[in-house]
Design a protein that fits this description.
The chain is built from five helices and eight strands. 26% of the residues lie in helices and 25% in strands. It has a single domain, classed as Peptide methionine sulphoxide reductase MsrA (Peptide Methionine Sulfoxide Reductase, Chain A, 2-Layer Sandwich). With 163 residues, the chain is an alpha+beta fold. Strand 4 and strand 5 form a beta hairpin. It is globular.
């Protein structure tokens, strides 16, 4: 099992999007790469410096890291700074945060390929994970609990299941 942390705007939709794929073992939404103190959602909304992030535990024999990144780039605007869809602010920045330095070559290759595809340098952070604090329980699987909840990811993207 491997783990990667992806920030892609509002974490509700990112979690729902990744939960649909075979090989994703578990997801958890939380706050990453801000100050070391565990924030509340209200702190994050008041510019604590944390990014809304999804921790993804995955089986690399079923879903590779490059495949995960291809999926990630399908649902974000990699040229936008602190904004995805209608959500704006530092907590909505995009980022890929890793804990295993052995993942860096694959991550960098994915970033280079995406930059070539879009024809510009990406505005997505590629950094080691500094910290991750799980979000409050009501945020976990939020769009499953609240099917009509807002999400910047188009609804059709939640039914791409690759089994």
């Amino acid at each position: 099992m491997q783990t990667i942390y992806l920030a892609g705007g509002c974490f509700w939709g990112m979690q729902k999007f990744f939960d649909q794929f075979e090989g994703v073992i578990a997801t958890q939404v939380g706050y990453a790469n801000g100050p070391d103190a565990a924030p509340s959602y209200q702190d994050v909304c008041r510019n604590s410096g944390h990014a809304e992030t999804v921790r993804i535990d995955y089986d690399e024999t079923k879903l590779s890291l490059p495949e995960l990144l291809d999926l990630y780039f399908m649902v974000i605007d990699p040229l936008s700074v602190n904004k995805q869809g209608g959500d704006e602010g530092i907590q909505y920045r995009t980022g890929v945060y890793y804990t295993d330095p052995d993942q860096l070559p694959a991550l960098q290759a994915a970033f280079d390929g995406e930059a070539q595809k879009v024809g510009a340098p990406l505005k997505v952070e590629l950094l080691p994970l500094q910290n991750f604090f799980p979000a409050e329980e009501y945020h976990q699987k939020y769009l499953e609990k609240n099917p009509g909840g807002y999400c910047h990811i188009p609804q059709r993207m939640f039914s791409l299941r690759k089994d």
